Structures are given as structure tokens and as C-alpha cells.
Amino acid sequence: MPHSWEFVDSAVPQDVRERVLLAALDELTRWGIERFSVAALAARHGIEEADVHRYWGSGQRLVLDVMFFRSEGVMAAPDTGSLRGDLEAMALSVAAYLNTEVGRRLLRAVVKDTHVHVPDDTRMIYWRRRFETVRTILDRAALRGELREGVHPVTGVQILLAPINIRGLYTDDPIDEAYCLSVADLAWRALVRR
């Protein structure tokens, strides 16, 4: 599981980290990944640009720190002992996160744009890490003999997360428990060995 501290120098004072992360969250949700700029963040929020470079090294590392710091609770792969239980728990966890203002805004911030200030692979680093978390669910299910043969891991992850993320992207409606359990059930039926 990724941990946001891997993207920042551990010597950063806690008050500086909190202030910079809050400013970066504002910039990221306002402008998205591609238009995120450390210089603009510094100017708009009264933060020393040198501090960002000293502790994070780059705008990309700061963006990743914000994204992982704000979603650490969602990044943990549930381990209920069954594929169905893990899919339900993951769906509910993702929905709970996306039902927050920060979760919804960050999801929308990772939508592709063509104006780039941060290296293009930032989004893919984030999604690969998210994929690794959900892949853990599939790997455990395979070890327990629950996963059917021939499941492509990316497809398995997308079956569960795509409907929830789409609802979070295109509506402001809460993502309710019944919807999550329905999506998890569909994913389970597509993935389970019969």
C-alpha cells in the first residue's frame, strides 16, 4: 500500500507539511493535475516555493503526496476472507471517500487535460498504486480458489471501480450503499469461479 510519506522529505516540519498540503489540495482541485503549478501555489497561498522544492523535490511529488495523503483510508485492501466480502468492502470504502467533498474534487482533478505543468505520468503513478491495492483482493481470491481462470486483473479492477468512479465524476448525488453492493455483486458474479 502506498504511503504519502514516500513523496516528501521526512525532515519537513509538520506545520509546513500541513500548510503546503492544504494549499496543494486547493490548487489541485481548482486546476487539475496538468495545470498544477508550484509557482502559482506559492504565490496564491503565501508559501515559499523553495520550501516545496526542498521537502518535495518537485510539483509531481507534491501532487502525489496530496493524492495519497487524502486517500490513505481507501488505499488499504480489505481482507474479509472472501472475494464477495472484499469487493463489497472496497466498493463501500471507495464510495465513502467519494461522498466527501475532498474525495469528489480529487477524483475530478485526475481527469485528463491537455495543459501540462506536472509530468504526464503523475496520474498513471496514482492509478497504478490504486490498481495494486485492488489487485491484492484478486490475488488473495485466486489463492483461496475463488477466482475463475483467465481473469485479466485490470478488467477485474475496472468492473468494480468504474461504475462507482463514473457516478462520482458525473453526478453530485451520494453514492449509496445499495448501489455499491449491487456493483460488488455484479463484479463478484463476473470474477468468481463456478
UniProtKB/TrEMBL annotation:
Gene Ontology molecular function: DNA-binding transcription factor activity; transcription cis-regulatory region binding
UniProt DNA-binding region: 37-56
Keyword Transcription regulation applies: yes
Keywords, comma-separated and alphabetical: DNA-binding, Transcription, Transcription regulation
Gene3D superfamilies (alphabetical): Homeodomain-like (1.10.10.60), Tetracycline Repressor, domain 2 (1.10.357.10)
Signal peptide: none
SUPFAM superfamilies: Homeodomain-like, Tetracyclin repressor-like, C-terminal domain
Record carries keyword DNA-binding: yes
Positions of the HTH tetR-type domain: 14-74
PANTHER family listed in its UniProt record: HTH-TYPE TRANSCRIPTIONAL REGULATOR RUTR, TETR-FAMILY TRANSCRIPTIONAL REGULATOR
Protein name, per record: Transcriptional regulator, TetR family
